[in-house]
Amino acid sequence: MATLECETAPATRLWPEYRRAFEEFSRKARYIQKLQSLHPQPENLSLAALELEQARIAYNCRRDALVQQFLIREPAKWLRPPNPARLAVTQ
What is the pTM of this model? Predict the structure, then answer.
């Protein structure tokens, strides 16, 4: 199976690209769930599973690119351990 290369988007388009990829992945996941409930032909299910996997890979690429931008812009903010006082549950 061939691997898909992650396409890079300009920093200004990362968030919209991430949202679009998530929506596409979500749509494909809902479709395959609906398809499974209809007891489809195996070849139809295989094609839907392949499309879902491609959407997952595209989503992961967009997610990773977005996170990378956060790390580049403010690495100290994202890499430091959390403040325990902020995590404490108030009673």
Answer: 0.70
